[in-house]
Design a protein that fits this description.
Helices cover 39% and strands 16% of the residues. The protein is of the alpha/beta class and 438 residues long. α3 (61-71) runs antiparallel to α10 (310-325) and α4 (85-97) packs parallel to α10.
Length: 438
Amino acid sequence: MSDKFNDYKAQREKYVARGVGNGNLHVADEAQSATIKDVEGNVFIDFAGAIGTLNVGHTHPEITKHLKKQLDKFIHPGFNVIMYESYLNLAQKLTEITPGRFEKKAILLNSGAEAVENAVKIARKYTGRQAVVSFVRGFHGRTNLTMSMTSKVKPYKFGFGPFAPEVYQAPYPNISEKSEELSGEAYTDQIINKLHDFFIETVDPSDVACIVMEPVQGEGGFIIPNSKFVKTVKQICEDNGIVFVADEIQSGFARTGKTFAIEHFDIEPDLITVSKSLAAGFPLSGVVGKAEIIDSAAPGELGGTYAGNPLACEAALKVIEIIETEDLNAKAEQLGYNIETYLTSLNETYDQIANIRRLGAMVAFEVINPETGAPDKALTAKLVQLANDKGLLLLSAGIKGNVIRFLPPLVITDDELNEGLRILTNAFETVISKEGIA
């Protein structure tokens, strides 16, 4: 490594909190589409997208041009102090593009965790109840409440307790865990029965303010539920006066081939939380949903100093325009298909690849020990690290740390995609050969 690289690494180690993770220790200098250059001129293909934040890619020219003009007008008057058009226009647009044939309203915030917190606050206010139900393998944030709703202990929760009370985690299907003798339908029915038992054994539905559900579990490993399960959850909510919250923070804004993943299941959630790819990298989030639920909080009970920053709102309006004009839903489906086809082919050579799954361009596979079928977290880490070393920004996921996930910008070019897949292939060749299990 160069002296400059080592200097930055030393600076990071001396001044940046150890608890902040880094998958790649190079320092970015410029980025466009799905390509990043570091300060030394090294090139990286981005399959991480800032953890699903850049569906429209790095530095989209329309967004950059638009925001340069906006920057000269004002930076942040504070919506609680004086209103501005971009907040109003984005709130309106979000109510128009989210599923639900009912009157909707929106509140804008800063981060995904903040959106989930506010969805819970609103649901509690509306129902007068306290209990919150999330799901095994779910991830909802790093604040005390959202950390309590999150399933994985390390690295998200270990040593950070006590956690928020009245939070319960329900079963959620993972088809890759079913026994061979069970059909997919029988397995789903088994999990649904466990869900009904959960509301007898763990918490009574009359105490539950909301059920918060990722339509596709993100950090949990891109787990895609059966439609019957999702509809059952929604029916439980309707039968018991529970607010159904779709957490679309990682799965929203065309990632799955629809604007929101919940649309795949023909469900109209009461509330939707949005963030990540909403604003092309600007900190912005929101809660959108039924007007009567959103309006249960009185003036002054919701908000925040930086919530709905006008530049972030302008970026978000452009993102939505780009999704529509460039048909990113169709691009997501084609991109996901191309990645799945590649993985299926790679699996013919490497049986360490298992359980390839996708919804649109939300694609993942598991790394296993082919002799035992057990998750191989160590091999996963080696593959991800070598890919990063060789110029591919790649992320792992999953409760057992053995899932490799794909979150490239949906505007990625064929050349960028092929180069990234080439690097991943080489990582497999190198790592498997060194392991002596080729």
